[in-house]
Each structure stands twice: as structure tokens, then as C-alpha cells.
Amino acid sequence: MVPAQYYLVLSAAMFCIGLFGILTRRNALLFLMSVEIMLTAGNINLVAFSLQYGNLTGQVFSLFTIALAAAEVAVGIGIILVLYRNFRGVDVTKATTMRW
């Protein structure tokens, strides 16, 4: 059996990659992908601790997080389509000029 520390290191690395993607990218699609990587890192933590302690609570929370991620992607794609329609691109720095 693989120790939980390996899962935690993998999760920390994935979270750092996602955070780096959020802080450095301007493309909205890459921004959403980075958020998904960070949510996946959290899911790995939940499942790793669930397996370590023999409790299914972490896996249930992981399923809720996956459902939340699916809803976030649906809303995010809608926002990206509006951004592309208004500015002819998906650069998130141009969205600061949007007004009501």
C-alpha cells in the first residue's frame, strides 16, 4: 500500500501548479483549468485521508467537490463566451473595462 505522504506531496505539487497558473496566466480558459487542478489537489487530499483512516467521509466530500467543479465549469464557460463575444478574445485583463 502506498503511504499517505506520497499522496500529500502529489496534492501539494498539483496545488502549487494550479496556483502558479492562476497567478501568471491571462487566458480565461487556462485560468479555469488551473482552478480545476487546485480542486483536484483538494480531492486527492480528501481521498488519501479517507483511505488512511478507513472512513468514507472524505470520499463523499470529494464527490461533492466534483459536483461543485462541474457547476463552476458550466458558469465559467458562459462567462468566457460573453467575454469572447464582447472583446473578441479571452484575455481576463480586458474584462476590467466592462461596465453595466
UniProtKB/TrEMBL annotation:
Location of this chain's protein in the cell: Membrane
Keyword check for Membrane: yes
Sample GO molecular function, one term: oxidoreductase activity, acting on NAD(P)H
Main location: membrane
Protein name per its UniProtKB record: NADH dehydrogenase subunit K (Ubiquinone)
Presence of keyword Phosphoprotein: no
Pfam families: Oxidored_q2
Spans through the membrane: 6-23, 30-54, 60-84
Superkingdom in the source lineage: Archaea
GO terms for biological process, alphabetical: ATP synthesis coupled electron transport
Membrane topology value: Multi-pass membrane protein
Keywords noted in UniProt: Membrane, Transmembrane, Transmembrane helix, Transport, Ubiquinone
GO cellular component, one term: NADH dehydrogenase complex
Similarity field: Belongs to the complex I subunit 4L family.
NCBIfam families: PRK05715.1-2, PRK05715.1-5
InterPro entries: NADH_UbQ_OxRdtase_chain4L/K (IPR001133), NUOK/Mnh_C1-like (IPR039428)
